[in-house]
Amino acid sequence: MFKTKVGALDSSDTYLRGETAQGMFLDFKLISQTSRMQLPFGIAQIGRCFRNEIAPRDFLFRSREFNIAEFEFFLNPEEKLCNDLEENHLGIKLKLLDAETQTAGKEDLKETTIGQMLSEKRMEEWQAYWLAEQIKWYHSLNLFEIKIREHTKDELSHYSSATFDIDYEYPFGNVELGGNANRGQFDLTQHSKESGENMEVFDEKYKNKIIPRVIEPTFGVERVFLAILTKAYSDDGRGNIVLNLPARIAPVKAAVFPLVKREDFEKIADEIVKDLREEFNIAYDKSGSIGRRYARNDEIGTPFCITIDDDSLKNKDVTIRDRNSRVQKRVKIEKLKEILRDLISEKLNFQEI
After folding, report:
1. DSSP type of residue 225
2. Are 300 and 251 spatial neighbours (Cβ–Cβ below 8 Å)?
3. How far apart are CA 203 and CA 41, in angstroms?
C-alpha cells in the first residue's frame, strides 16, 4: 500500500486505499439506519484505488492507480435460499477451471452451468445468483469470451469461503476481469471487534439481531473498458475500421446527415436533430462525401446513421443505416424516435424494420 502523511506531523501516517470495500463496511450500519434498509440489501461503489506495484506493466493490468467497482451484498447468515435464483440463472453456460483440476497441476477447462456448480456445492445460492448476474452483464456488453476460475483452498483469502475469478481472453492473453467472493461475516465482525462499535442490525424477517454475511461481486473498470474496445475493434486491412459497440453503450447513438449541402435538406436535418437530442446523444455532420461521413461514424462506434435526401422532401421519410450490416431502410420521420429507441434497447432488430 502507498504510505503518506496527513498534515504537518510526521507521526500522522496514513495509507491510500487498496480497495473500496472497507469504506462500505464502515458505513454499513449508518446506511442501514438512515436509508431504513431491510436485509438483504447491497451497497455499491466505484472509486479510485492505489497499490504500490513493484514493477507496473501490461498497460492497464498492473498499474499503481486504477478504478474498481465493488458491490457488498448483506444478508442474514440464516438466509440460505435465494428466491431470485431462476432457471435463466441456473442454465447459464460457462467454462470453469475448478479447484481440483488446478490442485492436480492441470489447466483443463470444463463446460458447465451455474446450476451444475451449485449442485456440486462449489458455492451457495446467493453467490450463484450474483455470479450469474455478473456473467449476464458481461454478455450484455458482447463479452462472451469469459472463463471462471475457482480459487483453491491454498489461495483462498482469509476472509473468503469461496472465491471465483472472472477471466477474459484478450487478444494478448487471459487476464482477470473481475471476481466474486463469499466474505461471510469476517469484515463486519473485525470492524466491530477493533472499534468497539456494535455492527448488529435487526432483521425483520427472522426477528433477530445479527451481523450480516456478505457476497461481493467486483469489477475492474479499466479492464472491462479495454475488453469492450478490443472486442469491438474491427479492421479489414483496407483502412475500413469499425467499432462494433453495442448500441446501448455507444457514446453517440446516431448521426444525422443531409445528403448534400442544401437549405431544404438541412432544415429537415436540424428538426430531426433537435427532436432526437431530447432523448439521445446525436451527432450532426454535413461536410464531406456521404461515404466519408459513414466511415467517420463507423470508427467511433455510432450504430445508426440517418440521411435526408430528395425522397425525404416528398415522402417525409429518411434512410437509416445499420453500422454492422451496412443495410439501409426507409423510415417515416414521425416514427424515427420510437424506432431508434427500440433499436438501442434491443427490443427491435434492424432487419425487422
Report:
1. H
2. yes
3. 11
**Exposed, middle or buried, 127 (CB in 10 Å: 0-12/13-18/19+)?**
buried
- Expressed as residue numbers, the domain containing 333 is 238-352
Distance from C-alpha of 276 to C-alpha of 281, rounded to nearest angstrom: 8
Query: What type of residue is 51?
Result: R
- Cα distances (Å, whole numbers) of residue 254 to 241, 277, 285, 337: 17, 10, 11, 11
pLDDT string in tens for the chain (353-residue length): 888 888 777 777 888 999 899 999 999 999 999 999 999 999 999 999 999 888 888 777 788 999 999 999 999 999 999 999 999 999 999 999 999 999 999 999 999 999 999 999 999 999 999 999 999 999 999 999 999 999 999 999 888 999 999 999 998 889 999 999 999 999 999 999 999 999 999 999 989 999 999 999 999 999 999 999 999 999 988 888 999 999 999 999 999 999 988 899 999 999 999 999 999 999 999 999 999 999 999 999 999 999 999 999 999 999 999 999 999 999 999 999 999 999 999 999 999 99
Same domain flag for 134 and 16: yes
Residue ranges with strand state E in 54-161: 65-75, 93-97, 110-113, 146-150
CATH number, domain of 133, equals: 3.30.930.10
- Alpha carbon distance 130, 115 (integer Å): 13
Alpha carbons within 13 angstroms on the beta-carbon side of residue 114 total: 21
Point out the domain boundary residue: 231, 263, 282. 231
Taking the model in full, what pTM does it have? 0.90
Count Cβ atoms within 10 A of the Cβ of residue 291 and give its class: 0-12 exposed, 13-18 middle, 19 or more buried: exposed
Preceding omega of 251 cis (within 30 degrees of 0): no
221, 67 Cβ separation under 8 angstroms: yes
- The three-class DSSP label of residue 140 is helix
Pick the last residue of a domain from 214, 231, 248: 231
Report how far residue 342's alpha carbon sits from residue 339's, in angstroms, rounded to the nearest whole number.
5
Q: What is the spatial distance between Cα 306 and Cα 185, in angstroms, rounded to a whole number? A: 54
User: Are 53 and 200 in a shared domain?
Assistant: yes
H or E segment to which residue 103 belongs: helix 99-103
